[in-house]
Amino acid sequence: MNQQFSPTLHIPSIAIYPNCPTKKALIIWFTIVHLLIRFNPIFLSSHKKLRRHTRKQQREQTERKSPPMAMACVTSSSSLFSTKPLSSSLNKTPFLGFSLAVSSTPSVQSNRAFKICCQDKAALIPSGQQWMFDDLTGPDVWNKTWYPKAADHVNTDKPWYVVDATDKILGRLASTIAIHIRGKNLATYTPSVDMGAFVIVVNADKIAVSGKKRTQKLYRRHSGRPGGMTVETFEQLQKRIPERIVEHAVRGMLPKGALGRALFNHLKVYTGPDHPHVAQKPSELPIRDKRITKQK
């Protein structure tokens, strides 16, 4: 009798053929053995131990490769710190030198407790990071935004600039002056703090405007009495009080309020080429606008 054998299922060291009378019995037997081995409590516990041991080895290798670093461990519950230094070096941290255990007579209590952990107890604090460990509660990990203090914006330490307004276009010059008075050209610019410089404007009577603004630009002022509105053109005001033109333009580009009034005092405008601020040693105002000078 001619039989053709075509294996359909392969199990290690055993092949099941379609004409084998024990095909179903073998499949059931191997399934039961597989389930018993797979879900055996002894097998599961040993498998968990193996995985736990593998993770521990990987963690030790990572700690061995990485350099020592300090980490702030935040605990949600409040804990107390003892400020008494310990004589034993084992219980000291390499940063604070204080015990991190709960003290019976604490001197400092905090809602958020910090614990300085270090992988290498022999590590030293970098000189640039000493400020992070000055406070007993550790570094402030929620607020790292720099904000200027009073010593960062003292008026006597601020720079002075001088600019010649001859043939300079009014609006372009005023915007450049306002940027430096506001301090927007600085990396330490803070909107709510006076960080800017002092600006001196000379030859304000020779400032220029574009187009027909010399006769069409209007300046209004009111005396406070009924019908006390006075309107004059740019040309008329330049002949009468030329300093007011520059002051009016720069004031409109500064904040409105107490800060804006304080910043406006940084502007010094004079009609002639001389100014009484030689003692401040003003430097030339840096101008990046290439079209600030009127083309004749």
UniProtKB/TrEMBL annotation:
GO cellular component: cytosolic large ribosomal subunit; ribosome
GO molecular function, one term: mRNA binding
Key words, A-Z: Membrane, Ribonucleoprotein, Ribosomal protein, Transmembrane, Transmembrane helix
GO biological process, one term: negative regulation of translation
Entries under Gene3D superfamilies matching the protein: Ribosomal protein L13 (3.90.1180.10)
Transmembrane segments: 26-46
UniProt-listed InterPro entries: Ribosomal_uL13, Ribosomal_uL13_bac-type, Ribosomal_uL13_CS, Ribosomal_uL13_sf
One protein family per Pfam: Ribosomal_L13
Family: Belongs to the universal ribosomal protein uL13 family.
HAMAP family (UniProt xref): Ribosomal_uL13
Entry-linked PANTHER family: LARGE RIBOSOMAL SUBUNIT PROTEIN UL13M (PTHR11545:SF2), RIBOSOMAL PROTEIN L13 (PTHR11545)
Name the record gives this protein: Large ribosomal subunit protein uL13c
Lineage per the UniProt record: Eukaryota, Viridiplantae, Streptophyta, Embryophyta, Tracheophyta
